[in-house]
Write a structure and sequence with these properties.
Blueprint: H1 16-36, E1 39-40, E2 48-51, E3 54-57, H2 58-61, H3 64-71, E4 79-83, H4 89-100, H5 120-123, H6 127-131, H7 134-137, E5 152-155, H8 164-169, E6 172-177, H9 180-197, H10 205-214, H11 222-235, E7 240-244, H12 245-250, H13 252-262, H14 269-274, H15 276-283, H16 286-290, H17 293-297, H18 324-338
Parallel strand pairs: 4-5, 4-6, 6-7
Antiparallel strand pairs: 1-2, 2-3
Helix pairs in contact: 9-10
The structure holds adenosine-3'-5'-diphosphate.
Length: about 350
Amino acid sequence: MAQNPPYKICFVPKSKEEKEEDEKNYKRYSEIVATTFPTAEGWFDVPIYQCQGFWYSFEMAGVGPLAFQDHFKARPSDILLASIPKCGTTWLKSLAFSIMNRKSHPPSALQQHPLLKFNSHDLVPVMEMMLYNNNLNGNRIPNLDILPSPRLFGTHIPYTSLPQSIALSGSRIIYICRNTKDNLVSWWHFINKLRLKNSLEPMKVEEAFKMFCKGTSSYGPFWEHVLGYWKASLEKPQSVLFLKYDELVIEPALHLKRIAKFMGCPFSSMEDKEGVVDQIIKLCSFENLSNLEVNQTGICDVGIPNNAFFRKGKVGDSANYLSPEMLEQLDHITKEKLHGSGLML
Ligand code: A3P
């Protein structure tokens, strides 16, 4: 399906001076990454780098995390959907987009809805990967000022590395996480899909397990990522909503209403009666989205086939892939890492 993702409009033409300034900035970020950041063996055939305690793929994000940190100007009305990859980002983006745009795009108008034409990552771009990523943007800082409010963005950046303007402006953040074991297994399958696409041998589950426990999975360490947002949600519940994929699967309507209220657009009792909540749940269901042509055959901007974002959508599938010892070890690490935080995964 050859279409331009809507956020492409952020790459407006720039003057010669502006272009030079952007190029200078990206050159500086690349030098910082190349000369001062630790590296480790990556998930593909290129090393990963560590920035402020978390691991990033140069192939997937370039030096986007640094550019995002320096250049993003948040608005109080912004809503940021945050996650560590493979925790249900694709689903959360579909739900939040449908909630926010339900007046202009009613979920009942099933033939017209943007989610039928675009994968949710193309409707709600991951800032550091799709907008600020120099591998994709030709070293041009995007102009997000042209977007109308409220703006909806995604990010995988850990809480402590977010641009300062997000906390200062009071933008709202919705974070989704998932139980550790399913996150690892989902990440391992995802990496192998991409390795296959790049003609690389599949990674063994033991290898993925080792990297995950060491913290060198995508945007890892997993536990520190989750804890950063968890603590922020306790300190500033009006600014950070903390969700669990596993709970969303069990009670989607309850959490959809929480999300809508947090976003500042709660469902009216009339909407509830008319079945809008159920329509959104159905529109964004794994069964519906994964079977759409765009998600079976399309490719999102970072070059990832859309079908890689849909696998099983089940809770507990990790038990089919991890040995009892691995499951036990992950439970043990999770318990230790989250000890005293009040969070259970
Ligand atoms: P599994 O690999 O366990 O199936 P992310 O979107 O953060 O990359 O996470 C991907 C995980 O969310 C995958 O989990 C995927 O199948 C699941 N997923 C994607 N869309 C979903 C949806 N609409 N409903 C429920 N789960 C979904």
